[in-house]
Design goal:
The strands form two sheets. The protein has a two-stranded parallel ribbon with strand order 1-4. A two-stranded antiparallel ribbon has the order 2-3. The protein contains 23 helices and four strands. Strand 2 and strand 3 form a beta hairpin. It is mainly α. Among the domains are: 141 residues, Potassium Channel Kv1.1, Chain A (2-Layer Sandwich), CATH 3.30.710; 78 residues, no CATH class. Helix 6 runs parallel beside helix 8 and helix 7 packs antiparallel against helix 8. It starts with a helix and ends with a helix.
Length: 446
């Protein structure tokens, strides 16, 4: 009994010591300093490869107190996409990475293993783009099993070499490429031959984009038979380049901004993952289709919502500060989607209105078919109705206008066509009404 009490007290002392140590180390303020003779450290110094937030600190502290993990806070581990089940959305993955980095940094092996197992499950369901940060985390934390699992998943995917080289350490990128070469050799796959000169030119174009070298970009496009579309230059610039330079490239007018890359993504889809408002606004103003979907059915706004944590979306904007980019990007895309929806509804309403006009005009024209035989009577009737007789008679005199209502006159804008139809309907209505007041004397003579 005494031994068990001593052991319990010993564990309480160890827990208290660990908590005291963690409290002295975890300082979420921006300035490292010495307070009361004890040094304080920045979390960015302790965990240099990832940002560890206050929620993750609380989860680590809870584990130290109780020896158990708890459910992740939804505000930092779930996205704002209502259609998402949050099984493997980016916020869920990123929060698990955050906890894994923190537990690995403080040598909490058991806890690190828990989050490693969680990330293994995420890798099975997540889009391949979201596996990249998991692989990088496994690399930095020296978790070989998770690292190998991620490499296998990426090697089997259609993730292009440009993405591998830009977002993954060289050691890992080379390993993935080697696996792909080996897999192709074993399966004797017929791969398309790559033109070395063309490939070299594409890389030079990407290099010019990286360095914001507009002159070099123009020179390469003139010297070699490679276009911006061939190099997926807008996709590349939207993902990796300075937003101002992206606008310059877009303003050249030499690329199709709705072109889909080998993975079925438009430039707007790529920009949605980066969440850069300036890039999105420019694309939309130039005619990018917000309703366009990826090969797996995702629109740009769905991608953006799935990339955004609830905490970042509902974060209140302080007076005098800009709205956070997460919320701003979603708002911009949703406004564009609503605008497109209104335009589609108007187009549908226009079709319905055309049918309605057709029926009304046929009915009224049948009633005033004799107007062309009695123009003087028509003039009097219209004057009584207060209609413009000159315009009205010319409109009434157009044979077969209602029959050809849905034909398009290339010399007229939609608004002009709508005005013409309204005028014709109004003229017919006024004429019929006026004649009704006169008793339709001339119609009875026929």
């Amino acid at each position: 009994m005494l031994r068990s009490l001593l052991r319990a007290n010993q564990w309480q002392l160890i827990a208290a010591y660990c908590l005291h140590a963690v409290r002295s180390l975890f300082n979420l303020s921006s300035d490292a300093s010495v307070s009361e003779g004890r040094p304080k450290y920045l979390m960015t110094d302790l965990v240099p490869h990832w940002k560890v937030g206050f929620e993750a600190f609380n989860d680590i502290r809870h584990y130290i107190y109780t020896g158990m993990t708890k459910a992740s806070p939804p505000e930092v581990s779930t996205c704002v996409d209502d259609a998402c089940t949050h099984d493997a959305c980016p916020p869920a993955i990123n929060y698990a990475i955050e906890l894994m980095y923190a537990s690995a940094a403080f040598k909490m092996t058991a806890l690190c293993s828990v989050y490693e197992d969680s990330l293994v499950m995420f890798v099975d369901y997540a889009p391949v783009e979201d596996v990249i940060p998991v692989l990088v985390a496994a690399f930095h934390c020296q978790l070989n099993q998770l690292r190998s699992y991620c490499i296998q998943r990426i090697a089997r995917s259609n993730l292009d070499n440009v993405c591998l080289e830009k977002e993954i350490p060289d050691e890992l990128s080379s390993e993935i490429k080697s696996l792909r070469v080996k897999s192709n050799q074993e399966s004797e796959a017929n791969t398309n031959e790559v033109d070395p000169l063309r490939e070299k030119t594409v890389r030079r174009i990407h290099k010019a984009l990286d360095t914001d070298d507009f002159e070099l970009l123009n020179l390469l496009l003139k010297e070699y038979k490679v276009t911006l579309d061939d190099a997926y230059a807008l996709h590349y610039a939207a993902a990796y380049c300075n937003p101002n330079f992206f606008v310059e490239v877009l303003n050249m007018g030499l690329a199709d901004l709705n072109l889909k890359d080998a993975r079925g993504r438009t430039v707007l889809h790529v920009a949605a993952r980066r969440k850069e408002p300036a890039v999105m606004v420019t694309l939309l103003s130039k005619g990018a289709y917000a309703s366009e979907t990826t090969s797996d059915g995702q629109t740009a706004v769905a991608i953006c919502r799935r990339m955004t944590r609830q905490k970042d979306y509902v974060e209140a904007t302080k007076q005098g500060q800009e709205t956070n980019k997460d919320r701003l990007c979603i708002d911009v895309l949703e406004r564009e989607m609503r605008r497109n929806s209104v335009s589609e509804n108007l187009a549908m309403s226009s079709e319905v209105m055309d049918d309605d006009f057709q029926r009304k005009l046929e009915y009224l024209e049948n009633r005033v078919a004799c107007v062309r035989l009695f123009p003087s009577e028509a003039r009097v009737a219209m004057e009584m109705a207060g209609a413009d007789t000159t315009t009205g008679l010319s409109v009434l005199g157009r044979k077969g206008l209602s029959r050809n209502l849905k034909e398009v006159d290339l010399n007229e804008t939609p608004s002009m066509q709508a005005t013409s139809r309204q005028l014709r309907l109004l003229t017919l209505l006024k004429t019929v009404h006026s004649w009704a007041l006169k008793g339709t004397r001339n119609l009875k003579k026929m």
